[in-house]
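Ticket closed. Logging final result for Mutator-like transposase domain-containing protein.
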Amino acid sequence: MQVSSASSKSEFTNSTTNVLPKKPTESLWLPRLTEKDFKLYSKESYDKKSYVAPQTEKCATTVKLLRPHKVSDDYLDEYLGDTNTENRTVDRDLNILMMNNLIICHINESPHCNVPHFELVQETQWGLGWIWELKCTKCKFISEKYKMFREIETGRPGRKSASINYGFQTGVINSNIDYCTIDGDAKSVKGLQEAMQEVFGPLWSVNRLADTIHRGQSQFREGIRANFSVGMFPGVTKAQKNDIKTAFVNDIKLRSHGIMRSLFMKYNGDRQQISKCLPGIVRYVVNCYSGNCGDTCRWSITLCNGGKKTSWWYKSINLNSHGLQNGSLIPTDRDKLLIESLLEMKLSQSALDQMKFFSNTNKCESVNRTISTYLPKIRISPAMP
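Final structure:
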């Protein structure tokens, strides 16, 4: 709350603080009210757009109410108090062995430190296992490195495998994989299929699913190559028409992705229910782009609710960036067929079968991009001695 200077002394009802500034040109800031106090000491203004404090209406000072301070629940504060809390998977017996060994080594090296306090000084991750190194904060004692996982003799040179990692890999291999979402690289599916055939027999088949993001990129490239009519897009020069065409094709990509995502959310991934809606949605979206935005948009999942400020023409960033409004595009019958074919790359029965789980490979690609950034293929590491 901000209280400006005045010639007389005033006190706010819920505060014992004297709100008279020391100098006539000063303003005084009081602590924010809590949500409970805010409801007690405020009311809506006449225009219903702000709040006023009735206790200060006859006061010579100027009072400005700040938004109330939201106080979260105590249990939530307690849970979020320590942001460094994390879980680790460790071997129970090795953990007990580490504690006993830690205490003995500390007594031998620091006999004068009677009440030690240990904390992690370094931890190294080895798959799902961890290697810990601890120190005493009351003395200079630093422990050896403890492996909190059991190892497996593989008979191969190099570091030994952790049993927890080996068990996890075995579980993954023994899990039957029916579908694999790829970005166009068939080698990953081939490798998975060979691994599954070794476990479940030569007749096992891994089905390829299309990546939703890459399908949208293919949709955009096909739209750029599409030959729309000359009068389809407004504009004086060819460059202006091409810019509007690019924005329109990008809008088709984003809108079809949003429609399919909304359908999956509404029907909880039920492909039978989704497939019944797709033909009508494609027709309604084509009509919407043709300037016939009406009840067909309002009562179906086209991301357009009709009207003026609730229509897709008003909400779309790509269309608004070029000043396009309902009726700005003048598609011919051939143009409508082209728009319909672009939409069916995402909104059709065949596309639904290829993207039945609506999944993508973005997480995998982010890891691959990080690896290629720090370990590029063109960098040759020195030979190991």
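The longest strand covers residues 118-126. No further action required.
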